[in-house]
Design a protein that fits this description.
The structure is a single chain. 26% of the residues are buried. The longest helix has 27 residues. This protein is globular. It is mainly alpha-helical. α1 packs parallel to α7 and α2 packs across α4. It contains 9 helices and 4 strands, in the order αββββαααααααα. The strands form 2 sheets. A two-stranded antiparallel ribbon has the order 1-4. It has a two-stranded antiparallel sheet with strand order 2-3.
Length: 202
């Protein structure tokens, strides 16, 4: 489904970025951010139960496989929300995570985690397309629509193919926006509204 040369190039790009992030990821482990997580946190595994979003079908068969960085776990959900065109919702979800955890020091690794999750979904869906050919389009969409990686350093989001060069460049970019306002000037409301454009690609 995917040209071998393209797969090799993307794999090499991921390896280079992993090498760049290796010490940071190891440091996060030392801070307790690598633990037993859901492991398969996508929209398909969340339902509304008694009026509350409820997770189900976690990765139970392999303890080691489900022991991951908490941000890597969340990245699956963020990637999936974004893929469905719900950019404001992805932004809201990510900001609520930051509010709850204060996990601000290592945001540079978030795009890397999300790009890996998209690649995993592309691989799994491509394998499933052997029995269900209609899934081939969905598998390609994970790479074609993965503008999070390809366009991470662009102000306006466009749909382009995630070339290895663009991917490698994208995964080095991060941005922090600080909002200051006098007391009583609704800084929180203004920041939520304005953060959608620069921060919708966490």
């Amino acid at each position: 489904l995917f040209p071998e040369t393209r797969c090799d190039a993307i794999r090499d790009a991921f390896r280079r970025r992993f090498d760049a992030h290796a010490r940071l990821i190891e440091r996060r482990g030392g801070e307790g951010k690598i633990r037993r997580c859901h492991g398969d946190l996508t929209l398909r595994n969340i339902c509304m139960f008694e009026g509350e979003p409820t997770l189900f079908d976690c990765l139970e068969f392999d303890e080691e496989l489900a022991t991951i960085d908490v941000l890597y776990d969340l990245s699956f959900l963020l990637m999936d929300i974004w893929r469905h065109g719900l950019r404001d919702d992805a932004n809201w979800c990510f900001n609520r995570y930051l509010d709850a955890t204060g996990d601000l020091a290592h945001l540079s690794v978030a795009p890397f985690f999300m790009a890996i999750r998209a690649a995993v979904r592309a691989h799994v869906t491509a394998a499933q397309s052997r029995e269900t050919p209609a899934l081939a389009t969905e598998a390609l969409a994970f790479l074609v629509d993965w503008s999070l990686a390809a366009n991470y350093n662009q102000t306006r989001v466009t749909r382009i193919r995630a070339t290895p060069a663009a991917l490698a460049a994208a995964l080095t970019f991060s941005i922090l926006v600080a909002v200051f306002a006098p007391s009583g000037k609704h800084a929180s409301k203004s920041s939520r509204q304005s953060s959608v454009t620069p921060c919708a690609r966490p």
